[in-house]
């Protein structure tokens, strides 16, 4: 995940006069629409009230950054867009010169965060989209980090659980597009370190997935309309006849391949976790459907043969 685009840029204060062209009030203060060139090279064009930036305006920094939005007494406050020197930008609500409320941040790697902000940080409910993989994190944020209940959505499966410091922790489940679920939990383990690293205080924590249960695949069989009995011949097959046999143990046997212990970290570095497993399962599911069809056909032929006798 990218960090925010750049350090915060300070605007010139109310006591930095600079050059000014525009309206003034009776006291000689900047009041109304005006343009200012500040001593540090920044420029501002917009509304003033009693000598302070107030209302809609555009502030351009000499390094290329700029803010287009609302001001209240020299502070960015209300709706506004800030474009940073590296090209990233924030569009949303501001309070007291900080990102605060609801907003969207567009990162230089094309990732986006859409959600709540609190004193300049991602905080509350939000969605982070990873442009490179198409995965997205939908859930809770605390002080800029992924933390709390969330769903991590990948191309052909998703993970539901809780996160702590960007890592999945505790009970959760993977939901595959093929129709099955893998339940388990993430356990945080310390990464192995060499002898030369033993004195370091920082410890890398790696989440490790342990599967505990696999839910059964729910097979769907279309119900075909039964033809009128008047047209049924003695040798005709009944297209409406179907097997009522439950997949049960056979489907469960196919899913046993998902159980086990793997090192999986569902994040920006791992958007395609379990893709191979789910592809393999697609093939198994197809074979199972074909076998079911053959069984149904043989049972129907036997049933029709008995009727003829």
Structure report:
Residues 1-19, 239-249 have a biased composition (Acidic residues). One of its GO terms (cellular component) is motile cilium. By secondary structure, the protein is mainly β. 14% of the residues lie in helices and 43% in strands. The protein is built from two helices and 17 strands. It has helices at 248-255, 275-308; strands at 19-24, 30-37, 43-49, 52-60, 66-72, 75-83, 89-95, 98-106, 112-118, 121-129, 136-142, 145-153, 157-164, 167-176, 181-190, 205-214, 261-262. The protein has a 17-stranded antiparallel β-sheet, with no helix packed on it. α1 runs antiparallel to α2 (275-308). The longest helix has 34 residues, at 275-308.
What's this, in brief?
14% of the residues lie in helices and 43% in strands. By secondary structure, it is mainly β. It has a 17-stranded antiparallel β-sheet, with no helix packed on it.
Strand content: 35-45%
Q: Give the oligomer, counting copies of the same chain as homo and different chains as hetero.
A: single chain
Question: What would you call the shape?
Answer: elongated
**Mean pLDDT rating:** 75
What's the Cα radius of gyration? 31 Å
Distance between the termini: 72 Å
Give the tally of β-strands.
17
Residue runs with pLDDT of under 50 for 5 or more positions:
192-200, 231-309
Q: What structural class do you assign from the helix and strand content?
A: mainly beta
Q: Biggest sheet, open or closed, and with what strands and sense?
A: 17 strands, antiparallel
Approximate helicity band: 10-25%
Total number of helices: 2
N-to-C SSE series? EEEEEEEEEEEEEEEEHEH
């Amino acid at each position: 995940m990218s960090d925010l685009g750049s350090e915060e840029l300070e605007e010139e204060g109310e006591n930095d006069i600079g050059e000014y062209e525009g309206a003034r009030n009776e006291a000689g203060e900047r009041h109304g629409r005006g343009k200012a060139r500040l001593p540090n090279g920044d420029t501002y064009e917009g509304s003033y009230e009693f000598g302070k930036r107030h209302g809609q305006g555009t502030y351009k920094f000499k390094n290329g950054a700029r803010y287009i939005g609302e001001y209240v007494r020299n502070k960015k406050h209300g709706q506004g867009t800030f474009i940073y020197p590296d090209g990233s930008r924030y569009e949303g609500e501001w309070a007291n010169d900080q990102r605060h409320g609801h907003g969207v941040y567009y990162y230089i790697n094309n990732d986006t965060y859409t959600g709540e902000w609190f004193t300049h940080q991602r905080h509350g409910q939000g969605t982070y989209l990873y442009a490179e993989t198409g995965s997205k994190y939908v859930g809770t944020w605390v002080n800029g980090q992924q933390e709390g209940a969330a769903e991590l959505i990948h191309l052909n499966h998703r993970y539901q659980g809780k996160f702590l410091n960007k890592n999945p922790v505790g009970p959760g489940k993977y939901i595959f597009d093929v129709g099955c679920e893998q339940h388990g939990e993430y356990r945080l383990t310390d990464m192995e370190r060499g002898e030369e690293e033993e004195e370091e205080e920082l410890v890398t924590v790696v989440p490790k997935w342990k599967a505990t249960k696999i839910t059964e695949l729910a097979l769907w069989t279309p119900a075909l309309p039964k033809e009128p009995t008047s047209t049924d011949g003695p040798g005709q097959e009944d297209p409406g006849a179907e097997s009522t046999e439950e997949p049960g143990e056979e489907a469960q046997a196919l899913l046993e391949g998902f159980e086990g212990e793997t090192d999986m970290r569902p994040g920006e570095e791992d958007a395609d976790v379990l893709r191979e497993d789910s592809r393999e399962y697609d093939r198994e599911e197809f074979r199972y459907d074909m076998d079911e069809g053959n069984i149904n056909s043989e049972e129907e032929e036997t049933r029709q043969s008995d009727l003829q006798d």
